[in-house]
Design a protein that fits this description.
By secondary structure, the chain is of the alpha/beta class. It contains nine helices and nine strands. It folds into two domains: 54-189, no CATH class; 203-306, Nucleotidyltransferase, domain 5 (2-Layer Sandwich), CATH 3.30.420. 53% of the residues lie in helices and 15% in strands.
């Protein structure tokens, strides 16, 4: 007994194969599902349902409800896997027409990253499990009164909440893209400053003590003379200057040929650490283990230049 006719005119054969695969899995689990397909013009239709049984109405109703749920899961998977990428491209192109193709691709990539996490809800995004369950619920409600299901029409007229949430995710993805672009431009500027600075010290060993101070040593692991930092020391009196910014300014001013970072796991500000690595790149060496990595040296920090 055919109960629902599914219509689609986009990626029809691919969608048919996916729906059939899921219906076959349900059939293997003991659900006696039947289906057939045909074309009207360019639109594919799949008629599907459950085989007639000589059982009571209660049993038939239970089987029908189970069939609807299986079909709703199959259709929700199709919407997320095949239609969602197209929707993301459409939303991005319409809302952010001022971005070039490469920039839009970056925004869509960020959106997919936000959408793929099924467990953690992120600002401006909704997890896959949640959006799939919402789609399933909407399909079940629709099938209560209808026996024809056009996928494209259902997306356009019945899934407004889902579309709005995709829009919100794209907005968040754009914010991430703009923040990343601004950060990259900032890194380029800092790298430029490093390149034009005269190298005052060949090597700096960088270490952060447990109390958060940044300790700087020369190539012989002796404390660095304060003569390089007198001007920068005065900025500490400026309440708007924090110690992380001062460390970056110090390293750029000295522009060492090599920076060895010790006890990298002990750095509290991971973003600052990544910025240093991004700015100095090929000049960076990570020390896995040496005497400077040991906390025993912290007792000597008053004899070292520290921030």
């Amino acid at each position: 007994m055919f109960l629902v006719a599914i219509g689609s005119h986009e990626n029809a054969e691919i969608i048919k194969a996916d729906i059939y695969r899921q219906l076959d899995e349900a059939h293997a689990d003991g659900i006696d599902i039947i289906y057939e397909d045909y074309y009207i013009g360019s639109t594919l239709f799949i008629s599907c349902g459950i085989r007639d049984r000589l059982l009571g109405r209660i049993t038939d109703k239970k089987a029908y409800e189970e069939f609807k749920y299986i079909l709703s899961k199959a259709l929700s998977k199709v919407i997320i896997e095949y239609y969602e990428p197209r929707l993301l491209r459409k939303i991005t192109k319409e809302n952010f027409f001022y971005l070039n193709e490469k920039e839009r691709a970056s925004v869509i990539k960020n959106a997919n990253e936000l959408l793929k996490d099924e467990k953690i809800m992120q600002p401006g995004s909704f997890c896959k499990a949640s959006r799939r369950s919402r789609i399933i619920r909407s399909i079940l409600e629709y099938l209560e009164g209808e026996n024809e299901f056009n996928i494209e029409g259902f997306l356009n007229f019945r899934l407004n909440t889902y579309i709005n949430e995709l829009n919100a995710t794209i907005e968040r993805a754009l914010e991430i893209f703009l923040a990343e672009r601004e950060y990259n431009e900032f890194i380029k500027l800092l790298r430029y400053f490093v390149e034009i600075q005269e190298c005052k010290i060949d090597t700096i060993h960088l270490y952060q003590s447990k109390d958060g101070k940044y300790l700087l040593y020369d190539e012989n692991k002796n404390h660095i003379s304060s003569e390089y930092f007198d001007d920068l020391r005065s900025e500490i009196l400026d309440e708007t200057i924090n110690y992380d910014d001062l460390l970056i300014s110090t390293l750029i001013t000295v522009s060492p040929k090599k920076i060895t970072i010790h006890d990298i796991e002990g750095f509290k500000n991971r973003e600052l650490l990544q910025t240093i690595i991004n700015v100095f790149r090929e000049r960076i060496t990570i020390c896995s283990k040496c005497d400077l990595c040991s906390s025993q040296l912290e007792s000597k920090e008053t004899n070292n230049y520290s921030l």
